[in-house]
Design brief:
This protein is an alpha+beta fold. It is built from 17 helices and eleven strands.
């Protein structure tokens, strides 16, 4: 078991440079709302906020999500997430679990289409322990064959429990983007247990480099975080950008029962587009309806009104270089089929009034405040934006971008959706769900 009493090289360096004393002075002098970002010479991005937060949350994130998988490594990002906390070069799986628990902390791993991240949350007096095992987990995995084999039941259980709506969204991405963003966040069933130690080591070495990494923290001094980032044993290298284009198509998975889940998407924009254009789509998402605002209230927005009668939600997924706007419906197969037809008609004739835009902007501003004022979601935002965009949008910048959106901007976004080709993912009893060629 790895000892928790010896200082890590980063903390020794931090103390030598006077960072510990600097942290106390800085915490007393800086306001909690300031976001700081530093790009190291090796291209690793470091971002932090709220140094006075009572709990320290730190993450190491990589552009290693499923869009980076190739035909030989499909499912690797899912395995990488599931393997978080397994044995490393400096600690056993038991040692990591035991010492994090003894510190009263938590160590988690997350993966989506663009990012794989490892995060630790500890109280400030246990920061040394948290950073030690975060570093070991995120940079020192060895992927022992017998430990990978032990992940098989866990991964199969995750796949078996996927809600139909999530399956439909995964199929939608496959139809819309094919490779790249079309790669599922979840390991294909036929590949579960097929990832060798060599496959995982190669995937990590290819995608988890300094140029594709970020360190983000909330409740920790920025200079201390910079020192930690400088000490990480990561290879340099930019890797490849797996760009994805939006295509029309459909992927259907027939199943037993009387219910169906369907996801429909049109092309939107990515977050590397001009912020004002991305903000217009975000406002459109809220303006077109995201469900009732009050208990037993009615749906507001042209899109959600068209989907009344089934479980539904609007959909806006923004990635670095592309995006998707649409809706998800689920319910009785016959009702879901009718809802798809109504939803597509709403997308093709989507229009918003000044009142809709005002409501959408108010909801978008509230969403920004909710994300940035919650320390856990703020921490997630810092990591995602740092590693994907190489910068962090401050709260005031996001709110200003939303407030600057005009009705004309949102209507232009709606026209782009209306003129876009469509993609569909559907799962379940699809006897009443129209094919893409039948929708006009």
């Amino acid at each position: 078991m790895a000892s928790v009493t010896s200082k890590t090289p980063m903390l020794r360096a931090a103390a030598a440079r006077g960072y510990a004393a600097h942290a106390q002075a800085a915490a007393a002098s800086r306001g909690s709302g300031e976001v700081q970002t530093t790009t190291l010479p090796n291209k690793l991005v470091v971002s932090s906020a709220e140094p006075n937060a009572p709990v320290s949350r730190i993450s190491i994130a990589f552009r290693a999500g499923s869009r980076n998988e190739t035909a030989d490594s499909l499912g690797a990002a899912h395995v990488l997430r599931a393997a978080g906390g397994l044995s490393t070069k400096s600690a056993t799986a038991f040692g990591i679990t035991r010492n994090i628990q003894q510190a009263g902390g938590s160590l988690t791993s997350l993966a989506d289409r663009e990012v794989v991240s490892y995060s630790v949350a500890v109280t400030k007096d246990q920061l040394e322990v948290g950073l030690k095992y975060l570093e070991a987990t995120a940079t020192g995995q060895v992927f022992k064959p017998w430990e990978l084999a032990e992940l098989v039941p866990t991964i199969r259980n995750e796949l078996a429990r996927l809600p139909a709506e999530v399956q439909a969204v995964e199929l939608l991405h496959k139809a819309a983007f094919r490779d790249g963003l079309g790669n599922s966040v979840f390991c294909p069933d036929y590949l579960v247990g097929k990832h060798s130690s060599e496959t995982m080591q190669h995937y990590f070495a290819t995608n988890c480099t300094t140029n594709r990494a970020a360190v983000a923290g909330v409740g920790v001094d920025h200079q201390l975080l910079v020192g930690f980032a400088q000490s990480l044993a990561l290879e340099s290298g930019a890797g490849g950008d797996n760009k994805s284009t939006f295509n029309t198509g459909e992927v259907r998975r027939e199943g037993a029962g009387s219910r169906a889940a369907v996801a429909v998407g049109a092309q939107a924009v990515g977050w590397k587009t001009a912020l004002n254009e991305a903000a217009a789509f975000w406002v459109l998402h809220f303006a077109s309806g995201v469900g009732p605002a009050t208990k037993r209230g009615a749906n507001n927005g042209a899109l959600t009104k068209a989907l009344a009668g089934v479980n539904s939600s609007s959909l806006f997924n923004g990635y670095s270089d592309n995006g998707m706007f649409g809706f998800i419906v689920s319910g009785n197969a016959k009702d879901a089929g009718k809802a798809v037809e109504a939803g597509v008609k709403a997308l093709k004739s989507l229009s918003v009034s000044d009142a809709c835009v005002a409501r959408g902007k108010a909801l978008a501003v509230m969403a920004v405040a909710d994300i940035t004022e919650n320390q856990s979601s703020l921490h997630h935002q810092l990591g995602e934006e740092s590693v994907v965009l190489g910068q962090v949008y401050k709260k005031n910048d996001l709110i200003a971008a939303v407030n600057a959106v005009t009705t004309g901007d949102v209507q232009a976004a709606a026209r782009k959706v209306a003129s876009s080709k469509l993609a569909i993912g559907a799962v379940g009893n699809l006897s009443h769900v129209p094919h893409l060629c039948e929708l006009h």
